[in-house]
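Subject: UvrABC system protein C

B.,
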Amino acid sequence: MTAPNHTFDGKAFARGLSTAPGVYRMFAADDGVLYVGKARALKNRVASYFNSTPKPARTMAMLAQVARMDVTVTRSEAEALLLENQLIKSLKPRYNVLLRDDKSYPYVLLTQEPWPRIGLHRGARSIPGRYFGPYPSVVAVRETLNLLHKLFKLRSCEDSVFRNRSRPCLQYQIGRCTAPCVGLVQAHEYAEAVRRVTLFLEGRSDELSDELTNAMEAASERLDFEEAARLRDQVAMIRKLQARQYVEGQAADMDVLACAMQGTRACVLLLAFRDGRNLGTRPFFPKTNGSDSPAEVLAAFVSQYYAEQPPPREIILDRDIEDADLLQEALGAAAGHRVQVKTSVRGDRAGYLDLASRNAAMTLATELGSQAAQRERAESLRDMLGLDELPQRIECFDISHTMGEATVASCVVFDAEGPVRGQYRRYNIAGVEPGDDYAAMHQALLRRFRRAVEEDGVMPDVLLIDGGAGQVAQARDVLTELGISGPLLVGVAKGEARRAGDETLLLPDGRELHPGAASPGLQLVQQVRDEAHRFAITGHRGRRQKARNSSRLEDIPGIGPRRRSALLRHFGGLGGLKNASADQIAHVEGISSELARRIYATLHGLQGPGIERRPD
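Prediction pasted inline below.
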């Protein structure tokens, strides 16, 4: 149901609604979404906005902009909650509290293949297998993996290494892997280790301990004392972990959340326990969009965070929030187990809640201090470049390649608060002469700004180009070609000694600025430029490695199974072969000098070995 587009009459619109549960959306005159909310009874909730009851200034400012409203009726309040979260994430309303989109949550990944691999995973969950987490930090994941490798000895190597091993690696030698790559463990034994790892990661340590104890006793009865001793050590390690980290003697599965606020800036701190193990803390900084209510921020965080991440059995909060019972119901239904949202706790849990509260306050204070420094740098940059206002969006482009191979351009975005990683972009450069940095920059900029002109219209206030006059000329040509005049174009050229602080800023009118290392404005430029470099070279390495890993020996003319086996056996695997020179490869029986050169060229991307570099 949609209200007409003339001057909005909220009372009349509310009268036409039903008392069913659902979700409502408020729109501004430009069709931008102002607010998304859920309601137990749509008619009552929407009407409450337009009655005579006094409302906060933020709410009044929002209502003054409402041009129309939409509603969607749902079957239940829980369904309304789920739909609200989906719409907030996709529409990003101006007045909702928003959990910043962060795809970097670390997980433990147990792959789904004949010989599963266990390791740390970040990013899209596209690899087949089971994902355990998310963990609050990479340190927590590595501690868990360290323990699992000691206990169950699953492989951690990538498939490209695993498939080409001819002898056990160091992980086998130090007792952290059973070397399935060379057949030193039976398939059923490895599968049993995988099953036990799964029990541990699912939080079923008591069940695992009982099982290992029974297996130990059985091994002892059949006089297999070596196996019994190994199982005994596993049980002892698990019991020791339980004794040290269990909360109140139970295998706690809970998150402790506390919210600290100063003005409209907020920090939500997460302290996570899984299977009784303290996994550490992780801070979040939601975008409050003007809200100064810790309860509102915390409620929005719980709703949005656990819509994306599996909830634990207990969620302990430092304050009461709206619709806590509804959240329990919705999260429990989605998780398939009971979820309790608590605010009144005692004992160890009260201590952890106090710890989370104090850490949230300290983390927010640190963040605000860094933001003050960020604003000082932005003000200095504004004055240095002669801008009328603080730059709200800065973009920087960089190019990375190795001797012309696998060229990648990066675009990073900073706003008034720092990097906006969700808007970073990489461009795989194709169709240009290898090593032609000017053509690569031209292509990347043309792709970026053509989309802005034809689709989203998003433009930076300041466009930084990492390079000298040649790269800046390419950027000027692209902007002129597309008829774009808004962004201030600035080239960032290195000094003679390439020392940080000696950079020269090239302006469109031909002026050159030398701010010096002490300039806060130049420090901001350096921060953005260095982030663009990091993002470009990471993408380049990934593209280059993918290209090299995809080159199989069998694809090289003249290499069959026998010669492949001889090469891998001679060099101890594909890694050793890649490190060999063409002359060394030619010493392998059955490999001619011409074939050795062909193998070398294929394994090194047809370019030969090079040193990673960035163009000036």
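The first strand starts at residue 22 and ends at 27.

T.
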